[in-house]
Write a structure and sequence with these properties.
single chain; alpha/beta; Rossmann fold; 7-stranded parallel beta sheet; 41% helix; globular; disordered C terminus
Length: 287
């Protein structure tokens, strides 16, 4: 407890999934948390200790923590600017930025795509992370006390999967943004790192998680035999946000249950897997 005491954290996409889990855990460790999301929809997740009956900031405050909700569309630069001004008004600055907001589409080979899904994902996954990083870095430099920037990337940042080119492209860019921040802002005491989870138990992947064929395929390819849990990501994010990670900089933490190390995966047979699972068309949701 208290590993983040006195710290101010901004977490995007905080309404559900990884973002909600990180917001709750950051607050439990003593941070004041600004929960940024487009809206406060209660999109139920898979955490055993969270019934999703109230928005995350209410869940945090009823447990004795401190948090606020700030509406923000990360793909809109003006919305981001106003959200960070609200953080300034409420908390007077920030110490930690977690760029978690993201969207995902899948299900079409490159030659058959119109480019619209790629454009939407670039706007949210890449430009959204870029806009938020800009606002946070300006403040961290001016404050003169360093800071932490954490990107939610993905194993898709460096492992291509058939039918997911648009998503893979955006997550590769997020990883390079992390490295660019390291190159430019380390001299100000600001560290920049990325967390790269594999397939996770989040609302964004609900159609995959709840499809028995697809779920079994993922579990078979992972040495630990299970999907990434939001808490797996939240625990590592707390470490990266804390003083314990002071010399951890420019890294990418892979959270995949050993899948990559053992050559697991099914990328080359994605078309057959989608068809056998009846997932010809997949929807998109937010983390």
């Amino acid at each position: 407890m208290d590993r983040l005491k006195g710290k101010i954290a901004v977490i995007t996409g905080a309404s559900s999934g990884y973002g909600r889990a990180m917001a709750r855990m950051f607050a439990a460790e003593g941070a004041k948390v600004a929960c940024l999301s487009r809206k406060q929809d209660l999109v139920r997740g898979y955490e055993e200790d969270d019934d999703y009956t109230v928005p995350v900031q209410e869940e945090i405050t009823r447990r004795g923590g401190e948090a606020v909700f700030i509406a923000c569309d990360v793909s809109d630069r003006e919305s981001v600017r106003l959200a960070f001004e609200e953080v300034d008004r409420i908390y007077g600055g920030l110490d930690i930025l977690v760029n978690n907001a993201g969207i995902w589409f899948s299900g079409a080979p490159i030659a058959e795509q119109t480019g619209e899904k790629l454009r939407q994902m670039l706007n949210v996954n890449v430009m959204g992370s870029f806009y938020c990083a800009q606002e946070a870095l300006r403040r961290m430099v001016a404050q003169g006390r360093g800071g932490r920037v954490i990107q939610l990337a993905s194993t898709a940042s460096f492992l291509a999967t058939a039918f997911e080119a648009d998503y893979d492209i955006t997550k590769g860019a997020v990883l390079m943004l992390m490295k660019s921040i390291t190159a430019e802002y380390s001299r100000y005491g600001i560290t920049s790192n990325a967390i790269c989870p594999a397939y996770g138990l989040t609302p964004m992947g609900r159609k995959l998680v709840e499809n028995p064929v697809y779920r079994a395929s993922i579990e078979h390819s992972v040495p630990l035999g299970k999907w990434v849990h939001p808490k797996d990501v939240a625990y590592y994010a707390v470490f990266l946000a804390s003083d314990e990670s002071g010399h951890v900089n420019g890294t990418q933490a892979v959270i995949d249950g050993g899948q990559r190390a053992c050559g697991g995966g099914h990328a080359a047979n994605m078309e057959g897997l989608f068809r056998s699972a009846g997932l010809d068309e997949l929807c998109t949701t937010v983390h």
